[in-house]
Design goal:
heterodimer, A: globular, B: alpha+beta, 42% helix, 18% strand
């Protein structure tokens, strides 16, 4: 008897009648086919965007950052806005794979692979912004604590900007290890199925020679569990440290203790929105609706409404504290955010992040795919404006009224931002073509507890009284799943 | 590194595999290994394998990261190149917590992953014998090493009684070697017939 039991209140994680082989077939066969026209169109468009980004960055480096719209008053502008935006998006993957693993949320198995991939690509995009913002990028290695001929002068270990270097590089490395270690057994599956010589060779290398012995699985599971345990505080630390970039300074609007939890909630909020954006399309194109079900999308929408509300409370708390502090600098900063020349960015943020996600309290809307898709984009527009509000509308009117300024971006900044979309989607398209976008081995692991056909078989047992159930277990030494269902 | 003879049984369900493992062990046969498409919980215990100490290694790597961070930063700021930042103390431990934490995680994660690869003998370019082409798909494969004292017929007949869907005898390289997966190994010709 299969004693792993899951309540009928929970909807199946895998729809329809699937067995192990069918799972492999459904998820791996898109990799073995030639990609469709949609894939080529999307991929080429992404590469063009990436090319434009490279051109913009080259232009910025060649002529210097004078080509950007940033000035002495607003030094961070679009660049750091985009950095924080991307790094925030990069929080969902590890949250799904680590925190939801520790909380034993079975539904993570359907979405974790794609979400982790998204995380890695988003962090790659985020990393570009501080690097190219340095201007003299050839001196970029100065942020690393390397022995040098400048004293030896070391970086400032007490500075949040340096903490960021460590946080983001660690986050990227650990996410990559977590993601790839999960991919190894799935690559072995593709290798063993491969009909062509090249695929057999390439996936043979990518699978590290994995054969799936009991001991190998045991160690792999131990690794996954510890990596999950390590990644959980890690994912919280990364955006906390990003928020320190602002919170440890004395700029009105930045100098606040609420920033770490507020940033983490915002990061999860935007990250889940990006996961939804990608998965709504991925499941459709690769025909994975039975694995990435509406239930999965709904679960993520629930997290979006939760974190959106946390972010909303944080915005209101900021306003309250500005008033409560009776510090004129704080009060003016928030007054100008709401009513100053950048009022539109504040209200765009409020509408997209606080007001519109509240619609997800309605179950019908949570389970509506077009609505989910539109909302996922609205949320990310809102989160972009949040970072813009924090960065630009805290600095444009500083302590010296004589240096007050207005900022709008120049084309290389916009091109750079578009270029990171190119980088992100180029990577994502390659991932969707060459890697299983759903973790095959993990789906097989939950199939017998959460697959629709297997749950149906348990209906009989569910109807049994406890005494009868105990009876069936004890009268059969090694009763079989199907047998038990007949009693 | 040696080519040996194995009796191989393939099962199509982990619920058949468990009693089979029990039966094989109970009959005194030594299981070479069991290959599964996903992590089958409890299989390691059923086979009598010990638990892994990988997490202890991870803890030690983590401690190395912690001490590297604290040791390195405190050496720089108190002895190698002390700098006065706004009158703050040179030994500013609270300000080092973020980097210390990150290095702890980094060392533990990288160290553990590399240790896992080493122990599991997996690396790009490594090749191992695959007993059944569907052992990564939907088959659960058990291999028993046949030595000169064992009757091939007896073992295969016994394996058939354990609920196996397929039973056969194969020559296989038991360890790992560097090789290309698209190339057939010379010993595999022995299994062709």
């Amino acid at each position: 008897m299969h004693l792993k039991y899951e309540s009928f209140v929970r909807e199946p994680l895998v729809d329809n009648n699937k067995d192990y082989h069918q799972v492999s077939e459904d998820i791996v066969s898109p990799i073995e086919r030639k990609p469709g026209r949609m894939w080529y169109v999307g991929f080429i468009f992404s590469v063009i965007l990436l090319g434009f980004g490279i051109f913009s960055v080259t232009w910025s480096v060649y002529w210097g950052l004078g080509t950007w719209g940033v000035n002495r008053t607003i030094g961070w502008g679009w660049d750091i806005t985009n950095f924080v935006w991307w790094i925030g998006i990069g929080h969902a993957g590890t949250l799904i794979s680590a925190i939801l693993l520790l909380f034993r949320q079975g539904w993570r198995t359907g979405v974790n692979r794609a979400a982790e991939a998204m995380t890695i690509f988003a962090v790659m995009c985020a990393g570009q912004f501080p690097i190219w913002h340095m201007g003299r990028v050839w001196d970029g290695f100065w942020v690393l604590p390397l022995p040098n001929s400048r004293g030896p002068l070391w970086p400032n270990f007490d500075s949040p900007l340096l903490w960021d270097v460590f946080a983001i590089s660690t986050y990227f490395t650990v996410s990559l290890l977590f993601w790839y270690s999960g991919l190894v057994p799935d690559f072995a599956l593709i290798r063993d199925r491969a009909k062509t010589k090249f695929r057999k060779m390439a996936y043979g290398i990518a699978s590290f020679g994995w054969t799936g012995t009991a001991k190998n699985w045991q160690r792999m599971e131990a690794l996954a569990l510890v990596l999950a345990g390590l990644s959980t505080p890690l994912v919280l630390s990364v955006h906390t440290i990003v928020s320190f970039d602002f919170a440890t300074s004395v700029i009105p609007g930045w100098h606040t203790t609420i920033f770490p939890p507020y940033f983490v909630a915002g990061a999860v909020f935007s990250g889940f929105a990006m996961v939804n954006t990608l998965l709504v399309i991925t499941r459709k194109i690769l025909h994975l609706e039975e694995y990435i079900t509406i239930g999965h999308l709904e679960a993520m929408n629930k997290i979006i409404v939760l974190t959106g509300s946390i972010v909303g409370v944080a915005y209101l708390t900021e306003l309250f504290i500005a008033w409560y502090s009776q510090s004129w600098g704080e009060m003016d900063a928030f007054k100008w955010r709401i009513m100053g020349p950048y009022w539109w960015s504040y209200w765009a943020m409020m509408t997209c992040n606080v007001v519109s996600p509240q619609l997800f309290w309605v179950k019908k809307l949570r389970r509506n795919i077009p609505f989910t898709f539109v909302m996922s984009i609205v949320v990310n527009i809102g989160m972009w404006f949040e970072r813009f509000v924090i960065i630009v509308t805290s600095t444009y009117r500083d302590w010296i009224p004589g240096s007050w300024a207005y900022y709008s971006p120049e084309w290389p900044e916009v091109g750079f931002y578009l270029g990171t979309f190119g980088l992100f989607f180029t990577c994502y398209f390659l991932f969707a073509k060459y890697c299983p976008v759903v973790a095959v081995a993990e789906i097989k692991f939950v199939l017998k507890t959460s697959g629709e056909n297997y749950k149906k078989k348990m209906e009989r047992i569910d109807a049994m009284s406890t005494e009868d159930f105990v009876e069936t277990v004890h009268t059969h030494h090694e009763p079989h799943h199907e047998e038990a269902a007949h009693h | 590194m040696a080519i040996k003879k194995f009796a191989v049984a393939a099962y199509d369900d982990e619920e058949v595999l468990f009693p089979a493992v029990k039966k094989v062990r109970g009959s005194g046969y030594k299981i070479h290994d069991v290959y599964t498409p996903f992590a089958v919980h409890g299989l390691d215990e059923a086979m009598g394998l010990k638990g892994t100490d990988l997490h202890i290694a991870g803890f030690i790597y983590g401690l190395c990261g912690t001490s590297t961070a604290v040791g390195f930063i405190s050496w720089i700021y108190t002895s190698d190149w002390p700098i006065n930042y706004g009158g703050k103390p040179h030994f500013a431990l609270p300000a080092w917590i973020p980097i210390t934490f990150e290095l702890t995680v980094l060392f533990a994660a990288v160290g553990m992953t590399l240790t896992m690869c080493y122990l599991n003998q997996i690396m790009p370019g490594v090749k191992k014998h695959v007993f059944h082409p569907r052992q990564s798909d939907d088959m659960f494969v058990m291999a028993i090493e046949l030595n000169s004292h064992m009757s091939e017929k007896e073992v295969t007949a016994f394996l058939k009684t354990t609920g196996a869907k397929e039973v056969n005898v194969q020559m296989a390289e038991e360890g790992w070697w560097y090789g290309r997966w698209d190339k057939k190994e010379p010993y595999e010709a022995l299994n062709a017939g």
